[in-house]
Amino acid sequence: MGSYIAIALFSPLLGFTISGLFGRFLPKNVTGIIASLSVFVSFVCSIMLFNHLHNGGDAVKLETFNWIAAGNISIDFSFLADKLSVWMMMIITGVGFLIHIYSMGYMHHDEGFYKFFAYLNLFIFSMLTLVLGANYVIMFFGWEGVGLCSYLLIGFWYANKEYGYAARKAFIMNRIGDLGLLLGIFMLFNVFGTTDYQTVFSSAGTANSATIELICILLFVGAVGKSAQIPLFTWLPDAMAGPTPVSALIHAATMVTAGIYLVARSSVFFVSSELASTIVLVVGLVTAVVAATIGLKQNDIKKVLAYSTVSQLGYMFVALGVGAYSTALFHVTTHAFFKALLFLGSGSVIHAMSGEQDIRFMGGLSKKLKITHFTFLLGTLAIAGVPPLAGFFSKDEILAKAFYGNGILVFILLAVTSVITAVYMFRLYFLTFHGEFRGTEEQKHHLHESPSTMTIPLIILAILSCVGGGLGLSSLFSHHHFADTFLSSVLTNANIPHPSHLFEIVVLVVSVVLLAIIILMTRSYYTKKQNVPTSADEETGFGRILSKKYYFDEIYKTLIQKPIEWLSNFAHDFIDRKFIDGIVNISGRGVTVCGNYLRRVQTGNVEFYLLAMVVGVIAFLIIYQLV
Amino acid sequence: MPPIDHYIWLSSILFSIGVIGVLIRRNGIVLLMCVELMLNAVNLLFTAFATNFQDSAGQVFVFFIMVVAAAEVAVGLAILVMIYRNTKSVDISLLDKLKQ
Amino acid sequence: MKTLVLLFISGIFSLFGGIFGLKKILPLFATVALATALGYLFYDSNYGLENLQNMLIFDNYSTTFIAIAIGSTLLITLMSAKGYSYNPESIGDIIGLMFFVLCGVVCMVSFNNMVMLFLGIEIVSIPLYVMVGSNRNNLRSNEAALKYFIMGAFATGFLLFGMALIYGATRSFDLDVIRSFSATALQTSPTYVSIGLLFITVAFAFKIAAAPFHYWSPDVYQGSPTLVTAFMATVVKTAGLGAFLKFIIYLSPMLGSDWYLIIAIMSAATMLFANIVAVMQDDFKRMMAYSSISHVGYVLMALLTVNKETQSIVAFYLIAYSLATIGIFACVLLLNPDHNKGNGFAMFNGLGKRSPIIAVILTICLLSLSGIPPLPGFFAKFSIFKQAISDHLWLVLVAICSSAISIYYYFRAITAMFFNKPDETIIAQPTDKNIAGYVVISITFVALLLIGVFPQIIGL
Amino acid sequence: MVLIIIPFIASLLALFFKDKLAKVLALTASVVQLITNFVLLSGFDLKANAFQYFSSYTWFNSLGLNFTSGIDGIAMVMLLLTNLASVLIILSSWDNNYASMTKFLSLVLLMQGALNGVFLSMNGLMFYIFWELALLPIYFIVGIWGGENRIKITFKFFIYTFLGSLLMLLALIFVYLHTPGDHSFEWDQMIIAQMTGWESTLVLWAFFIAFAIKMPIFPFHTWQADTYSVAPAQGTMLLSGIMLKMGIFGMIRWMYPMAKNACGCNYNIFIILAVIGIIYAAIIAIKQNDIKRVIAWSSVSHVGLIAAGIMTWNKEGLQGGILQSFNHGINVIGLFFIAEIIERRLKTRELTQMGGLAKYSRGFSFLFMVIMLGSVAVPFTNGFTGEFLLLNATFNYHVILGVVSGLTIIFCAVYMLRVYQLAMFGPEKDNGIRIGKLSWSEFVTLGLIVVLVLAIGIFPNWILNISETSVDGLLNIMKGGKTL
Predict the structure, then answer these.
(1) Distance from the CA of C346 to the CA of which of A27, A61, D106, D475 falls in 20 to 30 A?
(2) What Å distances lie between residue B84 and B78, B87, B89, C149, CA to CA?
(3) Do D426 and D476 fall within a single domain?
(4) Partner B, chain A 572-611, Cβ-Cβ below 8 Å
(5) Are residues D95 and D130 in the same domain?
(6) Residue D162 Cα, gap to closest chain C Cα (Å)
(7) Which residue of D has its CA nearest to C388?
(8) pLDDT truncated to tens, each residue of chain D (484 aa)?
(9) Is D136 on the interface with C (CB under 8 A)?
């Protein structure tokens, strides 16, 4: 079984090396196919592992070699495929594979084609190490690896200055999180002497609770960075600078869920630590609301999706916060499906619009882009939570858990958020696909459906986002909650009572009704009345604040970036040059100055010399007598 | 003979006079004379001690000193002459070219 | 003894040689004579010590210092072929005087009797007055001579007064007797002893140019012909220090802690003053004067603790110092043979390009003086620090600071040689005809490196 | 022994050749040197807690100066670095045509020899001698081949460091005077010197200042940025890549055992200084526009971390420190060489003058990327393993210090990415100057460095194992246990 892990890890790495080194000599299709195949291979492996575990096999461990050994620190380069890891593997490789296929079409005209695929493969490799690592350090290695890949891919079109900055921003914000994670790992070393999952978790009880709290918080800081939660979420929307498949794969389906994975992985600790869980809950909740509201006022198709991603991640963290870890992962899965679908859909739209991303210049695309339109619609419905699509079940479950686990307030806020979600998603949908076309003539003339390499993944994902809910049918429909039962062995869920049927029904009905209303309203507003959102600057009142994203970037700029830059200049020009170096130089110059004065003593006048001699003699006589 | 201390005081005074002379006079020749005064003070001291100890070595030393002093003066005068030839003066305070 | 006689005779000979037009061969003769003297010296030393009625004692100690002095003179005469160009007709006299000075040196470092010390000092001094002034028509040379003379005579006065007082306290000039009497002398007539010692010390301090009695030396070094400067900076200093050390060794029972304190103060003052002032000098020869003063300061540190090693430490220091100094002056002489050009640092500009050999050798000498390992200068300094650190830590700290300062001016020359562009105004082009000069500098070069890598070879 | 002699001879020989030949000679010499080093390594017993290849010859008896040389694990790592780096440096100078290249190369070789001497010497005085000897060549290299107003800067650099080493000399003599029996400068005698806590505190400070100036640790760093930026590329590499390690090595081998009776509280001060230095330098690096200056400051920051980690004096810290000094040597040489390559093409080091270089130089941008990541300490590059251990050590020493020094991984990312972005990304400057293809020497040099970066990133134990036993031994000495 261990060999499957090895293959799963190795094949993307191989793909990376091939397309990285020889990519420029191979024809594009070959590169693409090699890359996709390599991912497919690891997908197959993960299926194998999945079967193995599903049939009651126990976790597979792969020991390779001792990576770092110094004193008490000894880190093995080993991997562990338990149910959680494999669950993530499935998503990563599965969605990853589809997106590879898609990219073959999407990136076809780009001269960095092979580089793109090399990076993608590298990403898959790192992501797999992240989820498969058998201890926190290996996970950290994957963690940084994916961060790097996202940096590379966001800055893929480096010729554009803005994109470069976006990439840097992403990397640095992640780094801030990473510091927290790293410190957490040090704490673990400090407490348990190792970071190997099995040992650490088995001895989790031994450590005192305060330490555990601290560890959890530190780990969560890492999660916040990676999963774009408040306050470190601003990088994700900017990350949309990258090619759309990247946004789909990294910034929607997989990488950003690493934070969820981390917390879920450490569920043993989090369950036992009140404070940390509360923090997780609050952060998640706030993020969900804030991001959703911002999403209302965005005009860039990808930005809207980005903010919705942030808000959905917030959802997941809420779930984690209340201790429903398997629920969170369930939502991760469904979200991976429909969000990937939506992004790819938007990608195909952008493809058709030849690079245009602003929905104010779109509209009425449903006629030209049939498949895209249909799949996108499905995605929208799914995320809006229309039963029986995937989104409904996962969201509904989170709501339920929140309600029973944490009370009414959280529940209400989440409900509101999901309403908002529906609003901005349909706004997006209608503005894009219905009404009159608002783009330029030659754009209109150029409109076309994307090639099959792009549409097929769309279709598959659409299907998945329809049936994905099956992984976790709520107790209303079936007594077998697959995700829960599968994962419960590795996740220690807080025991939250199952929602009553009444509650289920109420939620179901209410949500259907609400959605219906929302759809009609948005449709009438944007399609019938042909309202077109204005640009951020023309907005007024609260709308302006929203469209300016609550001025987060500006605040950070003034509160953090500017001061540091000022400090840097100050430290260099004043403290260093003037003060420290000044002291050094003065002590140097002092000598020359003294020399200059003492030199005068040597008047060249012999009388003075004689006098000096006599004075010297007398002085010595005095010393001689006194001492 | 009177106690040795008197001689010591005397010669010390002479010596000091010589020193002061060297310090305050500028004329090269006078300077030489002052130096001679110092040396003679020493001579006096030596002889005094010698007679006091009934020891000849001291007196012998005096002769050495005289000889050396003579030689010194010879050289000194020569140098002064040389300088006079170049500067038409024996005022030592004029000689301060060497300095920085 | 034989050495002394030989030196004296050859002195006479070269005086007459100067008169009877043998000027051509004189430098050669001098070289040979010195070499022979050196040979004799070592030859004699095999027969153990030689005692002349307790006036002079030629023992291992004196042999060492005489050897250093004669060796330095040998090198100087070698390089001096061009050195007399400032007044060629009196070459005989100068060489003769040089020999007489050497006689004085011999007396100074092997004296066992105050008389011999006095005579030795005078025999050294009087010819030197003449040599300094030997560049007759150069006013600077005259001035130097006069200054040196007046102050020298002045110092002699103090020396004699001191001797008189010591004599008064101990009734003898013989060092052994004085030593044996010291105990009684100290309680019968302490004042004589203390003041006498002090005056003698002052005289020595004057000879070796230690602060505050050093004022003459920068002027004199700058004013007198390069050749003479080199001679004074090496031979005379060696003699002075040798004599002083011997004096201290003999009279150590008389020397109280306060006396040592004075020496310590002197050495600190010397090091600091000399180094700091040297930083601001623009005339290279003058800078060298200060540097030599500062080195005296280091040696004084060694004199503070007299034990069986002190002699060899001082000797080693003097060797290292003399070699480097002679090398430097030789280079200066090569660059600026007839003293018409100024000796500013500018004369080194771009030397690294113009004549790399001189540049490299000069650099090595300077490095050795500044005490950069593994050159002899370092070992010399180091051994002194090592000896002094245990009971004069503060002094060692001063020494360390001042040697850090000394880097400043030594490297100023090096910088000029390698980093500066040669400027056309003062282009001191080395005269390549002067083979002897090159021989000398290469000898110093090799010697420095050898001693640096195998310090054992000089058997100290 | 051989390690010292080869380069000296070679440096002499090199003087007698024309430029091209001299290059070949120098390169072969350094390669031979490296091979010798590997031979020694192969014969090196990793498990033996002792100084191997031990040899001792009298040099200057009356001073207690013996030519005593021996290699333990720590020294072995440093030697490897030195000789590896020398090969890289000489290789990197292949395309430079300085005036009188032969002198230049011979100085580099001389330097290499001296550095080997420093790491080999087991005699305090010998250590000092080679320490000073290593200073001279770099003085001339910087002074002769340096950039504008080099004279002032070199002067300052030299006097500053010289003062430091004089202090060290003082400390050495002081320890010497407290060695048992008739005194000796031999290392194994000096570490058992009997000193009161107060005395050894003095010694400690003297050593610390000397080494702090060399490394340099805040606030003794002011000579560094100027010197680095004015020095010729190879000079900078020598300074930052190897010379700085003399300080680290000195701390481990000399300062720590000599002053073992000193109060540990001093180390708190040192570590705090080091940590201040980390952040201080990093913050300054953020706004620098001269690419060499950025690297210089980053090097201050990294060294601060190394020093802090080492001075926690626990095994992780020491191991990490040693490993990281090796890595830092490799990385910083790589970075400076990259700066040099860019300067060769663009004739400027101003980041503002660059941009879009990535477009026409894929290979270069890849190599640059990897090396940069190495210094940003991304996992699987050598930087990570070292910094991981160091930060961990610092964190365990004191939480706050750990957190503060942890900030370096953020700042480092900030300024390194800034450099990379400004240089490589963005629209192409219209001056039409491009990196184009690398010459073979450039390519080989960078290639080697990249290989090392990745290899050590994956198998750090290769280095760690070499030094492990000796580190144990050292810590054992400090516990007052028996000496080696």
Answers:
(1) D106
(2) 10, 5, 5, 15
(3) yes
(4) 599, 602-607, 610-611
(5) yes
(6) 7
(7) D173
(8) 566 666 677 666 666 666 677 788 888 888 888 888 888 888 888 887 778 888 888 777 777 788 888 888 888 899 899 989 988 988 888 887 777 788 888 888 888 888 888 888 888 888 998 898 888 889 988 888 887 788 888 888 888 888 888 889 888 888 888 888 778 888 888 888 888 888 888 889 999 999 999 888 888 888 888 889 888 888 999 999 888 999 999 998 888 888 877 777 888 889 999 999 999 999 999 888 888 999 999 999 999 999 999 988 888 889 999 999 999 999 999 999 999 888 888 888 888 888 777 777 778 888 898 999 998 888 888 888 889 999 999 988 888 898 899 898 899 998 998 888 888 887 777 666 677 778 888 889 999 999 999 999 888 888 888 888 888 888 887 776 443 3
(9) yes
Q: How many contacts (CB atoms, under 8 Å) link A and B?
A: 26
Judged on CB neighbours under 10 Å (0-12, 13-18, 19+), C259 is buried
CB contact under 8 A, D158 and C411: yes
Q: What is the pLDDT of residues A603-618, one digit of tens each?
A: 778 888 888 888 988 8
Boundary (domain end) residue, out of D206, D230, D263: D263
Residue A261 contacts residue A130 (beta carbons within 8 Å)? yes
CB C76 within 8 A of CB C230: yes
Contact C146 B46 (CB under 8 A): no
Q: Which C positions 372-431 lie with beta carbon below 8 A of chain A? A: 405, 408
Same domain, D338 and D352: yes
Q: Do D222 and A580 touch (CB under 8 A)?
A: yes
Picking from B23, B95, B100, the nearest residue to A599 by CB comes out as B100
D283, D258: one domain: no
What is the distance of C-alpha D381 from the center of its chain?
A: 18
Total domains, chain D: 2
Contact (CB<8Å) C385/D173: yes
In this complex, the residue of C202, C259, C408 whose CB is nearest that of residue A617 is C202
For chains D and B, having 3+ Cβ pairs within 8 Å is answered: no
| Cα A587 to Cα A512: distance, rounded to the nearest angstrom | 81
Pairing of strands D65-71, D52-60: antiparallel
Contacts of A407 (CB under 8 A, 6+ apart): none
* Statement to judge: residues D199 and D314 lie in one domain: no
Of A595, A596, A627, the CB nearest to C258: A627
C122 contact residues in B (CB cutoff 8 A): 68, 71-72
Residues of chain A positioned with their CB less than 8 A from the CB of B92: 606-607
Is the Cβ–Cβ distance between A339 and A253 less than 8 Å? yes
- How far apart CA A313 and CA A284 sit, in angstroms, is 7
**Domain span including residue D225:** 1-263
Contact A602 C408 (CB under 8 A): no
Could you tell me the residue ranges of all domains in chain A? Answer: 553-626
Give the nearest partner residue to C390 out of D154, D170, D177, using CB atoms: D177
Contacts of A137 in chain D (CB under 8 A): 388
Residues in A closer than 8 angstroms to B93, CB to CB, are: 605-607
What are the sequence ranges of the domains in chain C? 2-458
Chains that touch D (3 or more CB pairs under 8 A): A, C
Query: Are D274 and D301 in a shared domain?
Result: yes
**Dihedral class, residue C21 (left if φ above 0, else alpha if ψ from -120 to 50, else beta):** left
| ipTM exceeding the 0.90 mark | no
Q: Which of A241, A552, C258 is nearest to D425 (CA)?
A: A241
> Nearest CB to B98: which of C137, C156, C219?
C219
Whether the CB-CB separation of C222 and C286 falls below 8 Å is answered with yes
pTM of the model: 0.89
Of B19, B64, B78, the CB nearest to C118: B64
